[in-house]
Amino acid sequence: MTTRQRASGAVVAVVGALGVTASSYLDWYDGRDATDIPLERLFQTDAVGLPSSYWNSMALALAVVGLLGVLGALLLSRFVLLLGWLIGAATLALWIVMSVNDNSLSFSAGDLQAGAWLCGVALLVLLVGIIGTGRSQRSDDETPTRAEPVPPPEP
Question: How many angstroms separate the CA atoms of 5 and 106, rounded?
C-alpha cells in the first residue's frame, strides 16, 4: 500500500474523528447535548443533573476521540486511530446501555436525536478510515537482498 493511499485513509479517519467530537455539541436525548450529560452517566443509571464542568461531561470522552484521530492521522498510526475509535464506540455504547437500563426514563431508538446519530455515523467513517490506512508492507523492490555466502578457498 502506498503512502498516498495510507494518507487518504488517514484523512477519512480524521473526518470521522472530528465528526465524533462535533456530535457532542448537538442534542443527544431530550434536548440535551453531551456537554449536559455527566460522565458518570456512562457507568451509573442514577447519575442525574448537570455536570459541574466540561471536564466532567461526556463531551470530554468525545473530545479525546478527536484528539487521538488527529494525532493518529499525523503519525499514520492505526493503533492510535483504533484507540480513538474504541473510546468513541465505548462512550456511545455505554451511554445507550445505561439510558436503556434507567427505570426513570422511557428510552427508545426514536428518542435518539441528531448528536447520537452523528456519533454513530462518524464512528463508522472513522472505522473506514482505519481500514483505509492499511498496513505498511514492503514491496518486492524494497526487500533487502541477502548476499550468498562465499565458499572458503580450496587448499
Answer: 46
Please give the tally of structural domains in the chain.
Answer: 1
Give the three cell numbers for residue 4.
498516498
- Cell 440535551 locates to 32
DSSP assignment string, 59-77: HHHHHHHHHHHHHHHHHT-
Q: Which three cell numbers stand for residue 88?
A: 468513541
Range of the domain at 124: 3-133
pLDDT digits (tens, 9 = 90+) for 18-76: 999 999 999 988 888 888 888 888 888 776 778 888 888 899 999 999 999 999 999 99
What pLDDT shows up at residue 144? 61
Amino acid at 48: V
99 Cβ contact list (under 8 Å, min separation 6): 29, 41, 105, 107
